Amino acid sequence: MAEFMKQNISANKIYTTLIFVVMAIILYRIGASLDLRTYMDDDVYFVKALDNTSLFDFLHMRYMTWSGRFFIEYILVTTINHHMVWRISIPLCLLLLCYSICKTIDNGEKTHPQYVLICLILFHSMPSKTLTEGAWWVTGFYNYLLPVSFGIYAISVVIHYRSQSNFKLFTSILALPVACSNEQMAVTMIALLGTNLIIDKKINAYKTTFLTVTLLSFLILMLAPGNKLRFLGESRRIPEFADYGIIDKIGLGMDRLGVVINASNSLLLIISALLILLYFKKVRFHPDVFGTIVCTIIFVFQIAKMNNLLPVQFMKPGDWINFSFYLRYTVALIFYVCIIYIICRVFNTVNDYVTVFTVIFAPATVIMIGFSPTVYASADRVLFLFECMILLVAMACVKKVLPKKPMTKA
Predict the structure, then answer these.
(1) What is the sign of the dihedral through the CA atoms of 378, 380, 386 and 388?
(2) 148 φ/ψ angles, rounded to the nearest 5 degrees
(3) How far apart are CA 62 and CA 76, in angstroms?
(4) Are 260 and 366 in contact (CB under 8 A)?
(5) 10 Cβ contact list (under 8 Å, min separation 6)
(6) For the chain: N or C, fewer Cβ within 10 A?
(7) Dist CA 260 CA 185 (whole Å)
(8) How far apart are CA 97 and CA 145, in angstroms?
(9) 171 near 185, Cβ under 8 Å?
């Protein structure tokens, strides 16, 4: 028996070591492949940002005339010319993101490296444009992967704060100014923290500090005078945007959301397959009628996408009278509501509230893009947080499918 246990421990060590080696190879190859894109205006702009001005004057000018992302832009302009900094930081932030996603769904349990590796692999299944613009593009990294990885790390700490070390509690607070320098991440954090306070029903010094720093960082971002000037400047893209009401802007956001859901998306396909499997497993392969209908809708929707039967173009002027666009929105929403329904059936304990919150709130991160006149000009980088939230849901499904112990006895 003792000999068997020694062999089992040795096998586990080899297995864990192999996982770390694979992750190291993946991260190294990512770092080695990165470079500045001198053909991109943003990279060139920030590389030369301090050529003729001081750091303080540049940050003041940006805050007053363009963007409230003060903390991100401070890090950006002071490090972008040091190539090894972002060549190392991008893989490390990706590792932090994957680790934090796994930690968030682990309910305080120890996170095994196999889940981090799976998350790292699934991360690469994001739509290529979103991945490229939000992570591999250097300026995109500073504005998306960096704050999102910091934000999800802070979330993973605050929702399991009772089991966290003082070091993690402290660093989660330090991460907030950067995390909340991205509008989508900041709103998501505030909404999730509010949900946590309602469910946990406890407030202490740490949570009070966390909420205070989050709100202050968000205010610094949103109250920047440059936001208004930027809004006016960007409105040339949609001249009538200033006259749009809240319903119109939500409609623009829905247009983007409909395209996101109907377009090819490996993560949504993986979630669909895993949820159907988990649902039938939960009901012991004796589903009720409604559950069967919901699973059928999810299955048929994915088949339709694979055969390019769903339109994925944005609405153009005059298309508002085209019935097919509203049918597209309806189909996309029905599919996503079905996903939410199955999630609520499978993840139905109090400890699963983060997964349920994430799948419900993820579309809001896309719809809120409609409140900016750059709703169509921001390309796919603004979908990065949505994809990361979908990745969290996918990992929650993976963790339920895989056995609890990474290795079983022979």
Answers:
(1) negative
(2) -70, -40
(3) 13
(4) yes
(5) none
(6) N
(7) 18
(8) 8
(9) no
**Both tokens assigned to 140:** 């995109």
Cα–Cα distance measured from residue 50 to residue 289, given in angstroms and rounded to the nearest whole number = 64
Give me 128's structure tokens.
Answer: 């290529």
Continuous segment of H or E residues that includes residue 279: helix 266-282
Calculate the CA 306 to chain-centre distance. 24
CA atoms of 365 and 377, how far apart (whole Å) = 16
379-408 burial, b at 16+ Cβ within 10 Å, e below that, comes to ebbbbbbbbbbbbbbbbbbbbbeeeeeeee
Looking up tokens 């002071």 gives 78
Give the C-alpha separation, 14 to 7, whole Å.
11
Q: Rounded to an integer, what is the distance from CA 261 to the centroid of its chain? A: 15
**pLDDT computed for residue 350 by the predictor:** 85
Question: Would you say the C-alpha torsion 163, 391, 116, 403 has a positive or negative sign?
Answer: positive
Tokens 């089991």 found at: 163
Which pLDDT score, from 0 to 100, does residue 41 have?
A: 75
Amino acid at site 123: F
What is 171-192 written as a DSSP string? HHHHHHHHHTTSHHHHHHHHHH
Q: What is the dihedral of CA 382, 387, 389, 392, to 10 degrees?
A: -150
Tokens representing 107 are 């309910």
Express each pLDDT in 219-278 by its tens digit: 999 999 999 888 888 888 888 888 889 998 998 899 899 889 999 899 999 999 999 999
Please list the ranges in the chain whose pLDDT falls under 50: 407-410
